Amino acid sequence: MISNNFTELKEPRLLVPATYEFKLAHRFRIYVPSFNANGRPIPDKIRIKALRRCRSTIENLCGGTTEWQAVGSYIGNNGVVREPVVLISAYFHQDDNIAEELFAVCHWLRDYLRQECIAAEIDSMLYFIR
User: Rounded to whole angstroms, what are the CA distances from 31 to 111, 112, 121, 128?
Assistant: First the structure.
C-alpha cells in the first residue's frame, strides 16, 4: 500500500485510486481545421458553427469534452502548411458502441468544411477520414 488513497498494482506497475466511481477506457479526439482543402481560411461563422455542432454531438455521446487550440502542420503540394486547429477530446466506454457515431461526426465535419479528410484519434491511433 502506497498511501491511503492509492493501491500499487504489480504488473504493470501503475497507481490506481483505491476507490473510484467508474472508468472510461477509450479516448476520442477530433482535429478541427481552420483552412479548407484549397488552403483558404474557413470563414469564422462556418468554423464556429462546426465547432459548436461537433462539441455538442460529442458531449451528448460521451458525456463531456475537453478542447484546446493548437497549431498543426503537414506537407502539402506547395511545401509545409501550418494552420490553427481546435482539438476536441472525450473519453467513452467500449461497450457504449459509439465509435461509429463519433466517426459520423468526422464525416459530417469533412463535408461541412469541404475537406479532403479529417484527422481523428481513437485510443492513440490516428485515422484520416475520407
Answer: 14, 14, 9, 10
| DSSP single-letter state for residue 15 | E
Q: What is the value of pTM for the model shown?
A: 0.82
Establish if 83 belongs to a structural domain. yes
Count of C-beta atoms within a 10 Å radius of residue 35: 19
Domain count, the chain: 1
Question: Looking at residues 47-75, what average pLDDT do you find?
Answer: 96
49: CATH: 3.30.70.120
- DSSP result, 80-124: EEEEEEEEEEEEE-GGG--HHHHHHHHHHHHHHTT-S-EEEEETT
Question: Minimal CA–CA distance to 27: which of 114, 102, 130, 128?
Answer: 102
Does residue 6 lie in a domain region?
A: no
